[in-house]
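Follow-up to my earlier ticket, as requested here are the two runs.
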Amino acid sequence: VEGKTANRWLDLGPTFVRRVLITSVWLGALVSLLLVFYAGGGVAGAFAIGAVLGAGGLFLLERIVRELLGPSRKLRLALYLFGKFGIVYAAAVWSLFGLHVPPLPFLIGFTLVLLVALLKVGGRLILSTRWMASSREGSGGPLLRQGPGSRRSGP
């Protein structure tokens, strides 16, 4: 894919982290609800706690980077750093050692935001490949472009 099409798909933009957080929260809530019925409340609670702490950590990391790249506000940066490394990680340690939540579902929930980000980037890479690109304006991949009876399947 050449020109603007390739750059458009690969450009993650400034809202990428926000979209990852929203998707992670919805996916985490759905998986937690399913885990209540299939694995029990303890596993679902551990997964939910991990997902919330993982999303909070990513949110605070994004805020730390914005403060470092923007105008210098040392107090706000210190609060974000304390929230990320003091509150999020202390809550994770307290959940694992104080509440004795199961570690595997907690870890899976904590890394859910990384999985969502990886899948979002992977999807954009797949959509930007030559196979999915169109030789004509406004059409999709090869299955959309050359289907039987398609008006677009010309020379």
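Run two:
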Amino acid sequence: MEFTPKPSSPAATGKPTLKQRMKALIAESGAIVLWVYFGIFALVLVSTATALEMGVKLDGVAGAAGIWGAAYVFTKLTQPLRIAVTLAVTPVVAAFLRRFRKQPQLAPELAMVEPSVDELSATGRQREQ
């Protein structure tokens, strides 16, 4: 009898890894995923620093650096959660932006028409005398 071990890695079972899902999301949504990720990063960093500032009263530059340093450490600790939120929120944001993005659609015959003299004067150009 031969013993063949069952594949236990996520790639072998068909479930993509977090890194593969993030790459697929970047390929699908483009720069939107980066804006969402860094937006969440900034939101967590600033809100943590604000919460620490409200609760901790330190004076001087060392106090401010300590608060921002602690806020950065907390933000780095929340990175797996922020990545998961990015993966969940980005498709919704991308769909929202696609829905409201206006695509210019001109008929080919309208694109070749030159404006008349009256239209030119309405746009601020002087009429030819």
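The only thing I checked on run two: Residues 24 and 30 are 10 Å apart (CA to CA). Let me know what else you need.
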